[in-house]
Structure formats: C-alpha cells, structure tokens
Design brief:
By secondary structure, the protein is an alpha+beta fold. The chain is built from 20 helices and 14 strands. The protein has helices spanning 2-22, 27-30, 46-51, 56-66, 88-97, 105-116, 125-136, 141-170, 176-193, 208-224, 229-238, 241-270, 279-285, 291-322, 324-336, 342-347, 350-362, 395-398, 402-405, 447-462, and strands at residues 71-75, 81-85, 102-103, 173-175, 369-373, 377-378, 384-385, 390-393, 418-420, 424-426, 465-469, 478-481, 483-486, 491-496. It is found in: Membrane.
C-alpha cells in the first residue's frame, strides 16, 4: 500500500498540470510518425517515453538515424535533459580528444553504487587508473594463451560439447542463451578468480546466482533509466517496492562474491608460494584486502565476462542459422585451420572474426553507454553540452547508419569486414565508428580475450553441430538491461553433423 500511496501522491500533485498543458495537443498522442519527441513544460516528453519503454533501445536508434547530425536531446520531466548521439566525431570527442571532460559522473556513480560499488565500471580519476593498471596484467599474451588453451578449451571439450552431444542424441530442446551464459560464467570465474562454479555440469544445476544477478541488473537498470529519479530515492530510503527487492538481490550477489574472496584469502594464506596469476590474487596481494572494495571488483568482472560474450554468441548462432552461405564459409575456415595448435588456430580464424564483428554491429552486447560533462562544452556537430548533462553514445544506432555502412546496412554481411587476395584479410573500423568495445583510454581491456573465447566456442561447436532454432519464422526480440539478451531465451535443437 505504501508504494501505491507514493505513486498516487506524485500523480495527483503533478499530473493535473500535464493534461492542462496537453489538452490542445491531440497530435502528441496520435502522431506515431514524429521522430524527435515534442517536449512540454514540466513533463518533457514523458508520455512518448513511457509508450516506448519496452523498446527503448530501438526507439532511440530510430530517432538518431533520422537526425541529420545523428544527435538529439531527450527532455525528461522537471527540465532534465539527456543527449543521445550516433555521430562518430562526437564519440571521438568524448572518449579521446576531450576525455578529461566526460566522466561517469556523480549521478551515474550514485545510481549504480549499490550494485557496482567503486569498481572499474563505476570509477573516475585516480581510482579508475589504479583499477585499470592492476587489471591490465590479466590480458598479456601469456595469460591469453593460457586462457584459450586451458580454461576455454577444457570448458568446451569437457562440458559444453558433451551437453550438446546428449541434446543431439536425445532430441532435447536447450535454451542456448542460458547454456552460453553458464559457459561464460565458469570461464570468467576460473581466469579472474581461480574459482570454478561448475554451472555447466551435465545436470545443469540450479543457477540461483544467475537468477539473482539478472534480477539485480534488471532492477538497477530500471533505476538508472528512471524518468523521475527522486521516486526511486524515496523508495530506497523507505525500503519499499522494487527498491526493497533490489537490496535483497544485491545482498545475495555481494555475499556470493565475498565467499569467493574468503576462499582465495585462505588459499593465499595456506600457500605462500602460490602463483598470483588470477586477477583476484593480484588485487589481494597488492595490499587491497578491504573486502567491500574487492567485492566490487569481483562483481564487475562477472558482469563483463559473463554477459557480454554470451550475448554476442547467442546472436551469432541465430544469424549463422539464418545465413547458410556464411555457415559454409565458416566450416571451410575451420577445416583449413584444424591442424594448427589451439591458440594459433583461433588467432588465424579471420572469417569467424569478421562474422562476430558483423553480429555485434547489429546486436551489440552493450547498446548504450553514458557519460557526464564535467564542464560546458560544444560537440563537433555543434550540439551544446551544459555542465552535468548526461550524454549517451549509442552503438546499436551506430551500426545502422547508412552513411557509414551503406544502403545494405540492414543485411548481415561479414564480407564488409574483409578483403580477399589469396586468402581473407580482416579490415577493421576505427573504434569511434564502431565503439562496441568502447574507445580511447577506456577501451575494453578484455577485447582480445573476448574474441579468442568467442572464436574458440564458435569453431568448437560448429565443427560438430548445427544449432537449429525451435522457432524459425520469427525474429527474436532484442532487450537490454545494461547488456543485451534475447527476450525469452534462445530455444534450439542440436543436430550432429554427419561429417563430424
């Protein structure tokens, strides 16, 4: 009842004004062809925002790609503004040339602090620099080779392949999105924490942590995208509604992370000569033993390692099924590299690399990324940015810009990333045109690790199996709570290739 009373108070206080303002603007509700939303005093564009709540990413993308400069300002209630852009020059301005002026910002950090704490995804300044410096050691060539040849290959051959073989033999329907998340979760825990959660056992054990983690992301995303921020702050202060539930979920996530930390501390204590090759050991050995701080690190790496690669691979396998010509070219490349050592085989898979890039152009794992202006500024396209304004660049929309990708931008065509002489060679795009892994000083440290993992999984699965969607005649729905997913999962049947 307290939640209903709070919403009623807000509604009864402000909304009579809304309908007076909008009484003479019937077109506001009926005009679905209008691209840039009309803004009104006090309420901004709240109704059209609510109308598109369930398709927020696609809606903003449609507006951006209709704007000549690929930038527009969204007006929320109470005069709050947020700038969105799909302009590569603006992205370079924010992420490189004027990097010092675009931080996560106070509002971002405050909103996400309950979940991300002071982790690298929620840090600015010296704290961010320290976290990045310590984390960078995890991504040298030696660590990457070990990751592919031991962690990924073991999880692939001992867990993923047997599950797929069993599903093929018994005609079992799998949620392949869930399988890939379990695979990625085991991998990131092993390489980052030296811990094996064993979520991809044949029994597919109950993934309580995954349920809690996903719900934490959903609720913190709702908070982050709130149109009237003081509502969630009041609800948190009173511990009611979804804010009460969020605190319960976050508490369970943090307890899971603390248990990993306690086990690692004990392991380091018992074995003084233990090699500190995993990220968690490095942080603990560097003198940062504060449990809350290290807990933030663990949660951030689970978020980065579990959700992004599994999201990309989910869309990859769906697109491969829809494009048999691409699958045929991939199988040819797998065969040509099959005699190479594992690490070299994966590094040499140029066509699969291009296919993954094309997948993430259309379905980026992180569709929107937000910064806050430290001081007043003007973007290269002339957009005025006031101090404190949130500005979001939109990789999902940027992958749909006709001026960049051509009139066939809607087509899934890995060849746009390739040139062919005697064999394929990869032709990349600059990271400001294609900021799927961010760009500039904050470019993703795990980019190469992610590609190695995804290429190894793609080759290992497609070499032996066809992944066949249960529903073939409908496109899946792209949804996002910070990271993207297929709504309702990705239900598939597995078919073993005769030639395997």
């Amino acid at each position: 009842m307290a939640v209903l009373d709070l919403h009623f108070l807000i509604f009864s206080t402000f909304f009579p004004l809304i309908f007076i303002i909008l009484a003479s603007t019937k077109s506001y509700f009926s005009s679905t062809s209008q691209k840039i939303p009309t803004s009104y005093p006090i309420v901004g564009s709240i109704f059209i925002i609510w109308k598109n709540k369930e398709r927020r990413v696609q809606w903003i993308s449609d507006i951006l790609t209709s704007c000549p400069n690929l930038t527009f300002t969204l007006h929320r209630p109470m005069g709050y503004r947020q700038i969105f852009t799909a302009n590569a020059a603006n992205v370079e301005h924010m992420l490189k040339s004027h990097f010092h002026n675009y931080h996560k910002g106070h509002v971002f950090r405050l909103t996400l602090r309950d979940f991300l704490g002071d982790s690298i995804f929620n840090a600015d300044g010296n704290n961010w620099k320290f976290l990045r410096q310590v984390s960078s050691h995890q991504f040298n060539t030696r660590s990457l080779r070990k990751f592919v040849e031991t962690v990924v290959d073991s999880e692939l051959s001992c867990r993923l392949i047997p599950i797929l073989k069993n599903a093929a033999d018994k005609a079992i329907v799998l949620d392949f999105q869930d399988i890939l998340q379990r695979f990625a979760f085991d991998n990131i825990c092993k390489i980052a924490f030296g811990y094996d959660p064993a979520y991809l056992l044949p029994s597919l054990p109950e993934a309580k942590f995954a349920f809690v983690f996903d719900n934490s992301l959903r609720l913190i995303s709702e908070r982050f995208n709130s149109n009237i921020p003081f509502v969630w702050k009041i609800k948190r202060a009173l511990s009611i509604g979804n804010e009460k539930q969020l605190q319960i979920y976050i508490g369970q996530v943090r307890e899971f992370a603390r248990e990993i930390i306690r086990e690692k501390k004990q392991e380091l204590k018992e074995k003084a000569s233990l090699e500190t090759e995993d990220l968690l050991s490095r942080f603990l050995s560097s003198g940062h033993s504060d449990e809350d701080f290290v807990t933030d690190i663990v949660i951030s790496f689970i978020l980065a390692g579990r959700d992004t690669t599994s999201a990309a691979l989910t869309w990859f396998f769906w697109l491969i099924f829809r494009h048999p010509d691409v699958e045929k070219e991939i199988l040819k490349e797998i065969k040509e590299n099959s005699e190479e050592p594992i690490y070299d085989e994966v590094k040499n898979m140029v066509y699969i690399h291009a296919t993954l890039c094309e997948t993430m152009r259309l379905y980026p794992p992180v569709p929107v990324s937000t910064k806050s202006a430290v001081e007043d500024d003007v973007l290269p396209d002339g957009t005025v940015v006031k101090k404190g304004t949130r500005i979001s660049y939109h990789p999902y929309a940027m992958g749909r810009v006709e001026k960049v990708w051509g009139p066939d931008w809607a087509e899934f065509r890995p060849g746009r990333w390739l040139e062919r002489a005697e064999k394929w060679s990869f032709v990349g795009r600059d990271s400001f045109t294609y900021p799927v892994f961010q760009a500039g000083p904050r470019i993703c440290l795990g980019k190469e690790m992610a590609f190695l993992q995804m290429k190894r999984v793609a080759a290992g699965v497609l070499r032996r199996f066809r992944v066949v969607p249960v529903v073939k005649d409908m496109d899946p729905v792209y949804v996002s709570d910070f990271t993207s997913k297929m709504k309702g999962g990705f239900l598939v049947k597995i078919e073993e290739r005769a030639e395997s």
